[in-house]
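Quick one, probably user error.
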C-alpha cells in the first residue's frame, strides 16, 4: 500500500489533455522517500507535463497527486518551501554571477543553505564571479542545480539535468546527485539518456504517449531478458538465417546494420555467428555478448527508439 508517510510522491490515475490530445493518460506511480526515481521517455512522452503538475505549475484534468503529503495546487505555498526545481536552460538572468544568484535566491527561503557551500558542492568555486552567459553549458546546468538546492529541499526535481554537458561534466553531476541521495534527498529525474537512468536511478519508470510502460529497478529491467549477441554488419542481412542458427532464439535489426540475436547459450551462439560470417564473407564489427541495454528494453517495449 502506498502511503504519503514513506512516499515522497504518489500519483494515481493522472490525466492531462491539451485540446483533444492526452499528454498524460491514466498515469500512476509512487516515489519512495530517499530514492532517485527516473522518468524515462522520448520527446513528447509526457514527462514535463507530469513534473509540472507535481510542482504545482499545472492542474490535472483528473486523478490525484500528493507531493510530500501535500496537494500541489491547494498547498502550493507550503510545497514551494520544501521542493527544489532545477530551472530549464535560459531560465537564469544572463549577467548574474553564480555567487550573486545564490545569495539572492537564499532570501526566498526560511532556512536556506549556505551559498558558498553550494558553490563548492557543484564545483563552481573558480567561476563563482563569472557572469552566467560566460559559463559553459555544463557550468550553467550545475549553477541551476545549486539554485535548486538553496532552500534545503526534501525533494528535488531534475528535468534533463545533464543536457548540454560533456562527458566529464556529466560524470561530475552524477556524482553530485548521488551525494545528495546520501544526504537523504529524494530525487525525481527526467531524462532521455539511458545511461543516466541506468547509472543513477534506484527505479525507472518508462513512459510513452503519457502511459506507463514499465517500472523497475534498472538492473531488473535489463536482466529480465535472456542474453544477446550483438554486432554491426552491412544492413539488410537475412534475419531468418540468423534466427535459424542452432543457439539463436530470435534475430532482429533494430537499426540498419545493427543486429541483435537473443539466446540462452551465448558462448555457442558466438561461435556459430562467427563461423556463419566467415563462410558468408561478412565482416562483423563490435561483436559482443551482453544483457539488453535500457535502450533495447525501450525499443522492445515501445516499438520505437529513444530519441535525444
Ligand atoms: N501547453 C501545451 N499545449 C499544448 N500541447 C502541449 C503543451 N505542453 C505539452 N504539450 C503536448 O503534450 C505532449 C507531452 O509533452 P511533454 O512536454 O509533457 O513531454 P516530454 O516527455 O516532457 O517531452 P520533452 O522531452 O520533449 O520535453 C506533447 O505531445 C506536447 O506537444
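Nope, works fine. Designed sequence:
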Amino acid at each position: 500500500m502506498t502511503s504519503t508517510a514513506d512516499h515522497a510522491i504518489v500519483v494515481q490515475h493522472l490525466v492531462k489533455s491539451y485540446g483533444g490530445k492526452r499528454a498524460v493518460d491514466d498515469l500512476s506511480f509512487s516515489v519512495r522517500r530517499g530514492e532517485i526515481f527516473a522518468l524515462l521517455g522520448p520527446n513528447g512522452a509526457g514527462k514535463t507535463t507530469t513534473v509540472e503538475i507535481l510542482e504545482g505549475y499545472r492542474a490535472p484534468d483528473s486523478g490525484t497527486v500528493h507531493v510530500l503529503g501535500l496537494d500541489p495546487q491547494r498547498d502550493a505555498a507550503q510545497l514551494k518551501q520544501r521542493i527544489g526545481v532545477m530551472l530549464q536552460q535560459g531560465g537564469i538572468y544572463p549577467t548574474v554571477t553564480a555567487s550573486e544568484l545564490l545569495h539572492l535566491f537564499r532570501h526566498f527561503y526560511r532556512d536556506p543553505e549556505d551559498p558558498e557551500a553550494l558553490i563548492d558542492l557543484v564545483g563552481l568555486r573558480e567561476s563563482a564571479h563569472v557572469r552566467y552567459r560566460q559559463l559553459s553549458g555544463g557550468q550553467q546546468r550545475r549553477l541551476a542545480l545549486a539554485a535548486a538546492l538553496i532552500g534545503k529541499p526534501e525533494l528535488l526535481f531534475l528535468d534533463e539535468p545533464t543536457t548540454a554537458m560533456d562527458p566529464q561534466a556529466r560524470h561530475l553531476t552524477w556524482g553530485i546527485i548521488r551525494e545528495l541521495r546520501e544526504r537523504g534527498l529524494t530525487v525525481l529525474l527526467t531524462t532521455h539518456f539511458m545511461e543516466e537512468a541506468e547509472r543513477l536511478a534506484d527505479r525507472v519508470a518508462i513512459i510513452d504517449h503519457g502511459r506507463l510502460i514499465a517500472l523497475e529497478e534498472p538492473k531488473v529491467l535489463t536482466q529480465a531478458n535472456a542474453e544477446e549477441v550483438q554486432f554491426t554488419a552491412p544492413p539488410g542481412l537475412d534475419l531468418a538465417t540468423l534466427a535459424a542458427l542452432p543457439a539463436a532464439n530470435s534475430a532482429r535489426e533494430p537499426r540498419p546494420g545493427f543486429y541483435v540475436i537473443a539466446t540462452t547459450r551465448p558462448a555457442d551462439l558466438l561461435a556459430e555467428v562467427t563461423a556463419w560470417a566467415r563462410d558468408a564473407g561478412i565482416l562483423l564489427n563490435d561483436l559482443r555478448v551482453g544483457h539488453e541495454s535500457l535502450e533495447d528494453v525501450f525499443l522492445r517495449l515501445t516499438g520505437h527508439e529513444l530519441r535525444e
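The chain has eleven helices and 13 strands.
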